[in-house]
Specification:
alpha/beta; 5 helices; 5-stranded parallel sheet; about 130 residues
Length: about 130
């Protein structure tokens, strides 16, 4: 699968890239929300990992909203990675009107390798069923 990691922390980003590449996936990344949106349109990834707190003009919920509103990229599944407690992230998502249905899963950082790989495996299986 082609996976886009949108994460401003280089340590988390590099860790995710290593883990996913070792598992046989093609990985591209963006450090900002603005670049992440552009990469979704350019690369057409099969899955996006999205940080909520990004160090630019757009946070993760705003990015999720813009993704949802763009028919070219709306169907790309997204998993949120956050330093926030997952319940708090959900509440903020509802507050930001991000349409949580667009987000498949909210995972805490630092991500557990087994959980990440299992989520990717399940999404890959679902994509094959729907193809």
């Amino acid at each position: 699968m082609k996976i886009l990691v949108i994460e401003d922390d280089p340590l988390v980003r590099e860790s995710m890239e290593r883990m996913l590449t070792r598992a046989g996936h093609e990985v591209c990344w963006a450090a900002t929300g603005t670049r992440g949106l552009a990469m979704m349109r350019e690369e057409k990834p099969d899955l996006v990992f999205l940080d909520l707190i990004l160090g630019d003009d757009m946070n993760g919920w705003e990015l999720a909203r813009d993704k949802r509103d763009d028919p070219e990229i709306a169907a790309i599944p997204a998993i949120v990675l956050t330093g926030l407690e997952p319940r708090a992230a959900r509440i903020r998502g509802e507050f930001h009107e991000s349409m949580l249905s667009e987000i498949l899963l909210i995972m805490s950082k630092p991500p557990a390798q087994g959980a990440i790989l299992k989520a990717v495996e399940h999404i890959g299986a679902l994509k094959k069923l729907c193809a």
